[in-house]
Design a protein that fits this description.
The chain is mainly beta.
């Protein structure tokens, strides 16, 4: 009788382990895409900016719209940026609000780089050139949407 009880307990434990492992979700794998953006910013203490861009992901190209606000910016500048968007599961994951703290001075031209992340975990690593005059010690926010 005791032996039957042990066998039943072991069988129940094995069954529970199989059900637990079988019902566990498989990990979802994220991919990386490439992005290109052209952003123009105008500001005197408070700035506004916006632009357009593209996301190339899994053989498709998606148009992007970028809107943003910054504090601590003086000047007018345009930046052409390119880089990667990592941790994408679908192209729609790129949409959302991004924020970063940055500082810099650009006269006529200069390098620009940024690393931004949204709430879905998408990380943008962007590098490029900036043209125009801008002095900033800014807290910036940008919203990216698919067009």
């Amino acid at each position: 009788m005791i032996e039957h009880f042990r066998v039943t307990r072991v069988a129940a434990a094995v069954l529970a382990a199989i059900l637990t492992l079988g019902s566990a979700t498989s990990p979802s794998y994220a991919d990386t895409g490439t992005v290109r953006m052209r952003i123009t910013k105008v500001g005197f203490i408070f700035g506004v900016g916006g632009g357009t861009g593209t996301l190339h992901f899994k053989g498709h190209t998606y148009r992007l719209r970028i809107d943003g606000v910054s504090a601590g910016t003086i000047g007018v500048a345009t930046a052409d940026l390119a880089g990667t968007a990592s941790n994408l599961r679908t192209a729609a994951d790129i949409a959302g609000s991004y924020s970063a703290v940055s500082g810099g001075i650009a006269f006529a031209g200069g390098g620009k780089s940024a690393r931004l992340q949204n709430a879905k975990g998408v990380v943008l690593d962007l590098h490029g050139a900036q043209v125009g005059f801008e002095v900033s010690l800014s807290l910036s926010g940008a919203t990216i949407s698919l067009q």
